[in-house]
Design a protein that fits this description.
Chain lengths: ~350, ~190
């Protein structure tokens, strides 16, 4: 194996999972969490995702060159594992296409109201494809920089978003419907907080693997905390009933922000910062598709596989450009991604534990 | 060469998102926009009228446009048609509703503006005595702003903002709007 193939650090992977998850979360989460006490949703589901991260870590930690994809083949057998990996690869391409559509629509709606999303869709996927043809370590380093930029962006925007909110009901109604909040959290965070699990497909390239579980757990915790804070601010500002009806509530909120009377139209800042998250997520999904396709057909992970994935995702995105993306995410993509995220880690961890207990050489 | 292309191409693509007239078909320069400062809305149950003041450096340069329609959306469209340049309502500081506009209609109007991306959440909302249009036709934003500040000081409660009106409407607890004094008072120095 070449030297650069072990260049990923656990911290880079954690940064990647957090930044990438913020891209769809900012559009999808507010609507799902639009009920009294909905801001608890990311927090109550955070525990579940920490468990999934730890299960994934347990599966790969004793096999230094293995990512989650290798564990599928190792523990389930090559035919079934390969089939599942192919399914995951195709699913990542579908997710990439749909997420690109969602991001392009968001950019068009919030910053360029008179434009259609097509141009943004093509540019986003074009750039992501160019990046996906390159090395994963480049993306991982970019993720660390994007994490800092987005952190600074949120630090700048969120304190000014606190004014004008109706905080009383947002807090007092917090525990009215704990069951509903948990279920809505599962739906709303399924796709976004599942990304720390998907990052384990890259675990085979990570150095200092003993820190992988810890760093990715911190990543999932930070992500859930940020999402809970954003949901709380949105609930206090708009109230659950109005929030449910808004398409891009976070950007509507920041549109009204003024910094000391000197800076206005903060939605442009927010949109430009969020482009980093979109770009990172799309590139990550293409890299995942490329890697799993290569594993499935037992070929070397060559650059042109990234190009094939990019073209396929663009084709899917253009073919589905007339669909209602919000409904598609709610009814199809989120539930399927939820089960794809939740089922494999405990299953693989249990199989790994059983094999280790029996002392089988795996 | 490869490194140069890798740097240059993303930069060129980033320029696509700029305001240049050559990149996005409907992009405009700043002098092609009319920035509205204040919007007055009258609605008698059948016909909506939008009147707006356009921001200007000098008093004599200010212009007032009016559009009407059966619905708020139609009135907004009509206002856009009347205006010779592209009308930008995103920098509105005040929205005035006439006395006859009921609370739920005011909320409906603000929601129509919000969904078109045309209003900021922090703009102040007032109700006038009588129709709102005359306040706009004969006053400057500064005059109105002064009067409204006095009103606020007397009542000791800040004016409701767009988001407060909308949130109240959706929660079934309509926000109480501060009422601006009669037009005669507005005209007084």
């Amino acid at each position: 194996m070449k030297r650069h193939e072990f260049e990923l650090s656990p911290r880079q992977l954690a940064a990647m999972s957090v930044v990438a998850a913020l891209s769809p979360a900012i559009t999808l989460l507010p609507r799902r969490a639009a009920l009294p006490g909905g801001f608890w949703a990311p927090l109550v589901t955070g525990g579940l995702y920490l468990l999934l991260v730890l299960c994934s870590f347990y599966t790969v930690k004793h096999h230094p060159k293995d990512g989650l994809g290798d564990s599928f083949c190792r523990l389930l057998g090559k035919p079934l594992g390969g089939l599942l990996l192919l399914g995951y690869a195709l699913w990542f391409l579908v997710l990439c296409a749909a997420t690109a559509g969602l991001a392009a629509q968001r950019i068009a709606d919030t910053a360029f109201a008179t434009e259609g999303p097509l141009l943004f869709l093509v540019v986003l996927l074009g750039l992501a494809t160019a990046m996906a043809c390159g090395r994963l370590s480049t993306l991982a380093r970019a993720a660390e920089i994007f994490f800092l930029i987005m952190g600074l962006g949120l630090l700048l925007l969120l304190p000014f978003s606190l004014q004008g909110g109706d905080w009383g009901p947002a807090f007092t109604s917090a525990l009215d419907q704990p069951g509903t909040v948990f279920l809505c959290g599962l739906g709303g965070v399924a796709w976004t907080a599942g990304l720390p699990v998907f990052v384990f497909f890259f675990a085979g390239q990570a150095a200092h693997r003993e820190r992988l579980g810890r760093d990715l757990s911190w990543g999932a915790a930070i992500l859930c905390a940020v999402l809970a804070l954003v949901a709380l601010i949105l609930l206090a500002t708009f109230g659950p009933n109005l929030l449910k009806t808004l398409d891009n509530s976070f950007f509507t909120l920041v549109k009204g922000l003024r910094l000391f009377g000197a800076l206005e139209r903060m939605e442009s800042v927010a949109v430009s910062v969020w482009v980093y998250a979109d770009f990172l997520l799309l590139t990550m999904l293409l890299h995942l598709g490329r890697r799993l396709l290569a594993q499935t057909v037992h070929r070397e992970n060559r650059w042109w596989l990234g190009l094939v994935c990019g073209i396929a995702a663009l084709g899917l995105a253009l073919a589905g450009s007339t669909l209602d993306l919000n409904a598609l995410f709610r009814d199809v993509l989120e539930p399927v991604t939820f089960w794809l995220t939740v089922l494999p880690p405990p299953l693989l961890a249990a199989l790994e534990w059983l094999r280790r207990r029996r002392g089988e050489k795996v | 060469m490869k490194k140069f292309l890798l740097f240059f191409l993303p930069c060129a693509l980033l320029l696509l998102s700029g305001c240049g007239a050559l990149t996005l078909p409907s992009s405009r320069q700043i002098d092609e926009w009319e920035v509205a400062d204040l919007l007055a809305v009258d609605f008698d149950g059948e016909k909506a009228t939008f009147t707006t003041i356009i921001r200007a450096d000098k008093e004599e340069d200010r212009s007032v446009y009016q559009g009407a329609g059966d619905t708020f959306e139609q009135a907004l469209e009509s206002l856009q048609d009347v205006c010779p340049k592209r009308l930008l309502l995103e920098h509105l500081r005040f929205v005035l509703f006439g006395e006859e506009v009921e609370a739920q209609d005011a909320a409906r109007c603000l929601e129509a503006l919000l969904r078109q991306g045309d209003v900021r959440l922090s703009a102040s909302v007032y109700q006038t005595q009588g129709k709102a249009a005359p306040y706009v036709e004969d006053s400057t934003v500064e005059t109105l702003s002064g009067i409204m500040d006095e009103e606020q000081a007397e009542k000791k409660q800040p004016a409701a903002t767009v988001v407060e009106v909308l949130r109240g409407s959706y929660q079934g607890t309509p926000a109480e709007l501060n009422v601006v004094k009669e037009r005669e008072t507005v005209e007084a120095p």
